[in-house]
From TrEMBL:
It catalyses: beta-D-fructose 6-phosphate + ATP = beta-D-fructose 1,6-bisphosphate + ADP + H(+). It comes from the Eukaryota. GO terms for molecular function: 6-phosphofructokinase activity; ATP binding; metal ion binding. Residues 88-385 form the Phosphofructokinase domain. Its EC number is 2.7.1.11. This is ATP-dependent 6-phosphofructokinase. Keywords: Allosteric enzyme, ATP-binding, Cytoplasm, Glycolysis, Kinase, Magnesium, Metal-binding, Nucleotide-binding, Transferase. Allosterically activated by AMP. The active site is at D214 (proton acceptor). HAMAP family: Phosphofructokinase_II_X. It comes from Haloxylon ammodendron. Mg(2+) binds at D184. Belongs to the phosphofructokinase type A (PFKA) family. PPi-dependent PFK group II subfamily. Atypical ATP-dependent clade 'X' sub-subfamily.
Amino acid sequence: MEPKIIKGDGGYVLDDVPHFSDYLPNLPTYPNPLQNNPSYSVTKQYFVDFDDTVVQRAVQHKDGPRGIHFRRQGPRQKVYFAPDEVKACIVTCGGLCPGLNTVIRELVCGLDYMYGCKNILGIQGGYKGFYARNTIPLTPKIVDSIHKRGGTILGSSRGGYVTSKIVDSIVDRGINQVYIIGGDGTQKGASVIYEEVRKRGLKVAVVGIPKTIDNDIPIIDKSFGFDTAVEEAQRAINAAHTEAESVENGVGLVKLMGRDSGFIAMYATLASRDVDCCLIPESPFYLEGPGGLYEFVGRRLRDNGHMVIVIAEGAGEKVEERDASGNKAFKDVGLWLSHMIKEHFAQIKLNITLKYIDPTYMIRAVPANASDNVYCTILAQSAIHGAMAGYTGCIVGPVNGRQCYIPFYRIVDKPNKVVITDRMWARLLSSTNQPSFMNPHKEAFIEGKQDEMVLSKITAEELTENEKSTGTSTSSSLLDDNHVDNQLLTTNGSTPLRK
Ligand SMILES: Nc1ncnc2c1ncn2[C@@H]1O[C@H](COP(=O)(O)OP(=O)(O)OP(=O)(O)O)[C@@H](O)[C@H]1O
Ligand SMILES: O=P(O)(O)OC[C@H]1O[C@](O)(CO)[C@@H](O)[C@@H]1O
Ligand SMILES: [Mg+2]
């Protein structure tokens, strides 16, 4: 996908999204029907100005570049579809995520109530449903209360993506708006669908709504479902804490999702305050010796009589196999760690009681919480406004709190990860006082889940590289400005333990 860069005065750069007019000149346009709707037309500045854009980096240096801007979402005065011309479809792909049903509901209600579009189809069972399943009609009545349920009423799947068959099905069914709800893999697929649609010269808007409890989509502030997942994780952590503090030398161990990105574990830890140690894929850890996990567990048990550990599924990565979409599938790191800790303390003859809690699927199968429900509504309505206005080949999402249209290529390149040299991880270290596992004088290693040791020496140079490579990423932390706090780094590059 070719970037569509628009430059302006004073170093202004807009990373724009594709539009029908880029490849289909002279399409008819219509006044936006919202102009006649009293709920909207009385609202001052309800319609978005063509030149409104949102800056990617909220924090700017006096003499620094202005950075990239994205097109602001919202209704336009002109639309590219007459209401009865629209045939929309909605598909959900990848793992479950709280809020999927809310987005489906709000797409259906928004298309109907705002734009009078009544021809809406649900594609069942993910991408393969385009060519292997029948569609279901979706109306406001059918979707009325689905947001109260977890999962997706349309079903989902991994794998089964065949571009030509999907686009053939779009053409055969006369679909001209495609709303695709899913994670990074799904949006990669959506990007290819858009390319094929464009190649065939079709007037079909392809708009992605990024979902994932893992929060691994870059650029946007956060993905829907993440808040709910963090909130739901509290219940497991509370249980682990209650179990641990009720016995002598109690250890509670909770495994949370996070294949490559440890955001759920990090935020659940920060929210809870009962967690003594959080282990994530981005921060290699080791068990033995000074500064290792065993030493820390022993110390906490001596000081407090109990402790809680949260571990993300991809921490200490050891890939077992691949799933249907080609994603890594892991051995159970929680089981491995509980075995290792028990064995270590048995060897040194300290009686501990370890309870392992694995709430992973419970966390993502719940309905969205209040704030995710609101967020899902905004995303769905933004997607509709964009498609109606002729924008395509993009996702919708918040950048610095303002909803934008972001070209697909921007989000499929590199996943969003916790940057361990950022302030947010430092805040966590300050809150838990856990070891940083960054000891430049020791060969820090990730201990594999099958007793294999994967050596990965963390050097000061690597830290600096990490800092450099992440300094430009925008949404590595939800609430942070992504600047490395120099105070956190000692001169030799290690992060000091907070006492
Ligand atoms: N590079 C790709 N090109 C085309 N399609 C893809 C690509 N990667 C994944 N897909 C398709 O997208 C769908 C969902 O992908 P995947 O299983 O990776 O989940 P996801 O969207 O990343 O969601 P999550 O990982 O958050 O559960 C699958 O049908 C898969 O075949
Ligand atoms: O068992 P499934 O459905 O493949 O889902 C597991 C994956 O889902 C995710 O939460 C992403 O949705 C990953 O963190 C996790 O590895
Ligand atoms: Mg994914």
